[in-house]
C-alpha cells in the first residue's frame, strides 16, 4: 500500500476524470453506492477500541467491545416513527443498529482479561453496574427479541433473567437499591395483537387552535392520526415487575400503564412513576404529552399523586412548564422527593428577582411540602453528596449564561446555601470541572467526600489547549488544590479514583499516534498500563497536527486544528478545507478561548473531515466561527458580518503560514455548519466550493426559533429572511455539494430543506449536487452511506478545489446535475 497523501499522477488527473463522470450524470438518478479508494475503505472498516467503565468497587474495568459500521440493511429494518421516537415494533424497543457486541472484564491487580460469553450476533445496550459492582445488567437483542441479562463479575459469566417480552421503548430496567433485584419493564401481557392501519380511515385528521400562544418548534416523527396514536399506546404500555438478579421470583407490580419513568426510592420501599395520559397530541413529542407523577409501594398500590401536567404545547420559547416539574428522589434520603416550581409563569422573558422555588416532601407523602430555597435564575437540578443530606443545586441565567452552583442542606431550609461556583458557562478557562462520584449507603451515585475533601476533574482548558486535571476541594471552604495535571506531548484525563483519597486513580492516555489506553497511577509506584488497544490506522501516523490561533479583523481571537498530509513539505501550497460550526457568545473573551488539544489521538473514522488530509488537502478542523453579542436577543443581527470576518481570517492565516495560496479553499460543515456553508457561499467569494451536510436553509420553516435565535419569525422576519441562504440562492455562484439523510429526525433539518435548497440553486443556474442517503438520519451510520459520503466529498473537492486554475473561472459553464 502506498503512503496516503502522495500526489500521484493518477490523483492529479482525478479532477478531469471526475469532471467527465459528472458531465454524464443525469438530472436525477438512483445511483449505486460508491466507494472511496481501498485504503480509505480499510480505515473505515477498522474495529474501534472498546468503551471502558470502572466498577463501583473500583477494582475491575469493564470493556464494551464494538464493531465497525453496521450495514445499511440494519438501518432498513421496519421503523415506526411515533411521538418523536423511532421504534422497532418487532423488538418493542428503539430502532437502530447495535453498538456494543461483546463484554470483557479486566482485574486491575492482575491485569487479567476475561471474556463474558454471550450468544453470537447479539446487540448489547443499557449496560449498568449493580450498586456494589458485583454484577452487570444489560439488555441483549437477538433477531426480534430483547432480553435482560446479568453477568456475575467474579465468575465472568452471564445468564438471562428475562428471556423475552421486555419493553424497551423507555427504560427497560433499573437496579433496586439492594443490588439483588431488578425493576423491569415488560410488554403488557394482555395487549392483544398489533393494531392494523385501516384501509379506509374513519374520517379526516383535525386540529384546532383555541386562542392561546403555542410556539412549538419543528419537531419530527410526530403522531399523524388515530392509528399512530393507537400503535404508540400499544408499544409504550408496560407492565412493571421485580425479578431477582438470579432470574428467580419474577412478580408483577401494579397494573399496566403508559409509564415513561419507574424509579425506586433510595430506601427501596417506593417507586416513583411517570405516566403519559391520553389523548395524545399530533403537534408535540411524547415528552410534552399530558402526564402525571405518582408514588406506588412494592405491591403496586398508589400511595400519593405528586404532580399532574396538562398538554405542554404552550411553553414559552426557552421556558418551562408551570406547576411541579423535575420530580425526583433525594439520593441521600431513603424516601424524600424534590421538585421545582416556576415563579415566573415558566417564561424566561418575565423580569423577576426570583425565578424558581425548590421543594421537598417526605414519605408517606401526605404532609405539607417544604420550600427549601428560591433561585434567582432557572433551577436545573442537584447533585447530592456523601456528606449528610447536602447537595449542589444549580441555577442558570440564559441571558448572561452565568451558572451558579450552591451547596444546600436538603434536610434543613434554615441553613444558608453556600456559593460553590459562579461563572459564565462558556468560560472554559474558569471551569472547575465535575466532582468524582461514589455510591452511598443506598447504592445511589453521589459526590464523594473523603476526610472533608471532594475531588474534581475537568478538561483544563488553557490558551495552549486542554490540560485535564485532578483537584482536591475542601468541602468546608471550597479551597482548591491541584493534585495532578496532564503535561507533555500527550493527552491524559482522569477516568475515576481507585482510592477514596485520590492516592490512586485511572486515566485515559493518548498521543497523536497512539489511541486512548487506560493507565493506573498509584502514589509511590510506577504508572501501570492496563490496556493496550492498537492503532486502527497506523498508516496515518505521519499526518501532522497543530493547534493554531489567529485573530479576525475586529480583534476576536480564533483558533483551529491544522492537519497537513503525510508528505507535506514546508513551502508547499495545498488546497485547504475549512470545517466549522458557528457558536454564539456573550463576549469576545469567552469566544476566543482555545478548546481542544493538539495531543489527542488523530482518530479518523466515519465521515470525519480528517479523511480529506489523506487525499492531499490541508484541513482547518473546528475553525472557530463565533457570533459575539452582549444581547442574546439580537446576537444574530450581525451573524453574516461576523461569519464572513471569521472566514476571511481563516483564509488569511493559511496564506500567512504558507500552506495555502488563498485561492483553493473549500468551506464545509454539518447541521448548523451546513447552514454556515451555504451562507458563506451566498455572501462572500472566499471559497471555491462548499460541502453542506444535513443542513437547514430556509428559516421560515423553523418560525419559532432556531439554534440560539429566540425571536419568532413574526418578531424578526427580516433576520429570518437575511439569514436564510435559500432566500439568497441566486447569489450562490460557487459549487455546493449537499448531503442529507432521507430520514433525518433532527428538529429543523427536515430533508426537504436540502431538496428545496438544491432546487433553488439549480433554478437560478447555480452549480450543485444533492445526495439523499436512504434510511439515514441526521448523522450517517450505515457502512455503505459513510463510504459513499467520502467518495462524493473527494470527487467534489477534486473537481472544484484541487485544480490550480479555478474550474468556474471562465470557459464553458457547467450545468447543475
Automatic annotation (TrEMBL):
InterPro entries xref list: 6-blade_b-propeller_TolB-like, AB_hydrolase_fold, Peptidase_S9_cat, WD40
Which residues, if any, are the signal sequence?
1-20
Question: What GO molecular function terms would the record report?
Answer: serine-type endopeptidase activity
> Example GO biological process term?
proteolysis
Q: Specify the superkingdom.
A: Bacteria
Tell me the keywords, alphabetical order. Answer: Hydrolase, Protease, Serine protease, Signal
Enumerate the spans annotated as Peptidase S9 prolyl oligopeptidase catalytic domain: 650-801
What name does this protein carry?
Answer: Peptidase S9 prolyl oligopeptidase catalytic domain-containing protein
Amino acid at each position: 500500500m502506498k503512503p496516503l497523501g502522495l500526489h500521484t499522477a493518477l490523483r492529479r488527473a482525478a479532477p478531469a476524470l471526475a469532471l467527465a463522470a459528472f458531465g454524464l450524470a443525469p438530472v436525477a438518478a438512483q445511483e449505486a453506492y460508491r466507494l472511496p479508494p481501498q485504503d480509505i475503505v480499510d480505515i473505515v472498516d477498522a474495529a474501534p477500541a472498546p468503551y471502558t467503565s470502572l466498577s463501583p468497587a473500583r477494582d475491575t474495568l469493564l470493556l464494551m467491545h464494538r464493531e465497525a459500521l453496521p450495514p445499511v440493511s440494519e438501518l432498513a429494518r421496519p421503523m415506526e416513527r411515533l411521538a418523536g421516537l423511532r421504534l422497532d415494533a418487532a423488538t418493542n424497543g428503539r430502532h437502530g443498529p447495535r453498538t456494543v457486541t461483546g463484554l470483557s472484564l479486566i482485574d486491575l491487580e492482575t491485569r487479567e482479561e476475561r471474556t463474558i460469553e454471550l450468544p453470537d450476533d447479539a446487540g448489547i445496550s443499557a449496560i449498568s453496574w449493580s450498586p456494589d459492582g458485583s454484577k452487570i445488567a444489560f439488555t441483549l437483542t437477538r433477531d426480534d427479541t430483547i432480553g435482560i441479562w446479568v453477568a456475575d463479575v467474579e465468575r465472568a459469566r452471564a445468564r438471562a433473567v428475562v428471556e423475552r417480552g421486555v419493553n424497551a421503548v423507555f427504560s427497560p430496567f433499573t437496579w433496586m437499591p439492594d443490588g439483588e433485584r431488578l425493576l423491569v419493564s415488560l410488554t403488557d401481557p394482555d395487549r392483544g395483537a398489533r393494531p392494523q392501519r385501516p384501509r379506509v380511515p374513519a374520517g379526516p385528521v383535525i386540529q384546532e387552535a383555541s386562542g392561546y400562544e403555542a410556539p412549538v418548534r419543528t419537531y419530527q416523527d410526530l403522531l399523524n392520526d388515530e392509528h399512530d396514536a393507537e400503535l404508540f399506546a400499544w408499544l409504550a404500555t408496560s407492565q412493571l415487575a421485580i425479578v431477582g438478579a438470579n432470574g428467580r421470583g419474577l412478580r408483577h407490580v401494579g397494573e399496566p400503564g403508559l409509564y415513561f419513568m419507574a424509579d425506586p426510592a433510595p430506601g427501596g420501599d417506593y417507586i416513583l412513576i411517570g405516566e403519559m395520559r391520553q389523548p395524545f397530541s399530533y403537534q408535540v413529542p411524547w415528552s410534552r404529552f399530558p402526564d402525571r407523577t405518582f408514588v406506588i409501594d412494592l405491591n403496586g398500590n398508589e400511595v400519593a399523586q405528586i404532580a399532574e401536567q396538562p398538554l405542554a404545547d404552550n411553553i414559552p420559547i426557552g421556558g418551562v412548564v408551570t406547576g411541579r416539574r423535575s420530580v425526583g428522589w433525594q439520593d441521600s434520603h431513603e424516601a424524600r422527593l424534590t421538585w421545582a416550581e416556576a415563579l415566573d409563569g415558566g417564561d424566561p422573558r418575565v423580569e423577576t428577582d426570583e425565578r424558581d422555588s425548590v421543594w421537598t416532601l417526605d414519605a408517606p407523602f401526605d404532609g405539607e411540602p417544604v420550600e427549601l430555597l428560591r433561585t434567582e435564575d432557572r433551577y436545573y437540578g442537584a447533585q447530592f453528596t456523601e456528606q449528610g443530606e447536602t447537595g449542589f443545586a444549580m441555577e442558570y441565567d440564559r441571558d448572561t449564561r452565568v451558572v451558579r452552583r450552591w451547596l444546600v442542606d436538603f434536610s434543613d431550609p434554615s441553613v444558608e446555601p453556600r456559593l460553590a461556583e459562579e461563572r459564565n458557562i462558556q468560560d472554559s478557562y474558569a471551569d472547575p470541572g465535575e466532582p468524582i462520584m461514589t455510591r452511598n449507603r443506598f447504592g445511589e451515585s453521589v459526590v464523594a467526600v473523603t476526610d472533608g475533601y471532594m475531588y474534581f476533574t475537568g478538561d483544563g482548558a488553557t490558551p495552549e489547549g486542554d490540560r485535564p486535571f485532578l483537584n482536591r476541594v475542601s468541602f468546608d471552604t471550597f479551597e482548591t488544590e491541584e493534585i495532578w495535571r496532564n503535561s507533555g506531548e500527550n493527552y491524559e484525563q482522569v477516568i475515576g479514583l481507585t482510592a477514596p483519597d485520590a492516592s490512586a486513580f485511572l486515566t485515559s492516555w493518548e498521543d497523536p499516534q497512539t489511541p486512548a489506553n487506560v493507565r493506573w497511577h498509584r502514589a509511590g509506584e510506577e504508572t501501570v498500563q492496563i490496556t493496550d488497544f492498537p492503532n486502527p490506522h497506523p498508516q496515518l501516523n505521519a499526518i501532522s497536527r497543530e493547534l493554531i490561533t489567529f485573530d479576525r479583523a475586529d480583534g476576536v481571537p480564533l483558533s483551529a486544528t491544522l492537519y497537513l498530509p503525510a508528505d507535506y513539505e514546508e513551502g508547499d501550497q495545498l488546497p485547504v478545507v475549512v470545517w466549522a460550526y458557528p457558536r454564539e457568545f456573550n463576549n469576545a473573551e469567552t469566544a476566543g478561548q482555545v478548546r481542544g488539544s493538539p495531543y489527542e489521538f488523530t482518530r479518523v473514522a466515519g465521515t470525519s473531515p480528517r479523511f480529506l488530509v489523506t487525499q492531499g488537502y490541508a484541513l482547518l478542523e473546528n475553525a472557530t466561527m463565533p457570533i459575539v453579542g452582549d444581547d442574546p436577543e439580537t446576537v444574530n443581527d450581525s451573524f453574516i458580518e461576523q461569519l464572513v470576518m471569521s472566514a476571511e481570517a481563516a483564509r488569511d492565516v493559511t496564506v500567512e503560514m504558507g500552506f495555502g495560496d488563498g485561492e483553493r479553499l473549500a468551506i464545509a460543515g454539518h447541521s448548523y455548519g451546513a447552514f454556515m456553508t451555504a451562507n458563506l457561499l451566498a455572501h462572500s467569494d472566499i471559497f471555491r466550493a462548499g460541502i453542506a451536510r444535513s443542513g437547514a436553509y430556509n428559516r421560515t420553516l423553523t418560525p419559532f426559533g432556531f439554534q440560539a435565535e429566540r425571536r419568532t419569525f413574526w418578531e424578526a422576519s427580516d433576520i429570518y429572511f437575511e439569514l436564510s441562504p435559500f432566500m439568497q440562492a441566486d447569489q450562490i455562484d460557487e459549487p455546493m455539494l449537499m448531503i442529507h439523510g432521507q430520514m433525518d429526525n433532527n428538529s429543523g433539518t427536515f430533508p426537504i430543506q436540502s431538496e428545496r435548497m438544491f432546487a433553488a440553486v439549480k433554478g437560478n443556474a447555480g452549480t450543485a449536487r444533492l445526495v439523499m442517503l436512504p434510511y439515514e438520519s441526521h448523522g450517517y451510520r450505515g457502512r455503505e452511506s459513510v463510504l459513499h459520503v467520502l467518495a462524493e466529498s473527494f470527487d467534489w473537492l477534486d473537481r472544484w478545489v484541487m485544480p490550480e486554475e479555478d474550474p468556474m473561472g471562465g470557459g464553458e459553464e457547467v450545468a447543475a446535475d
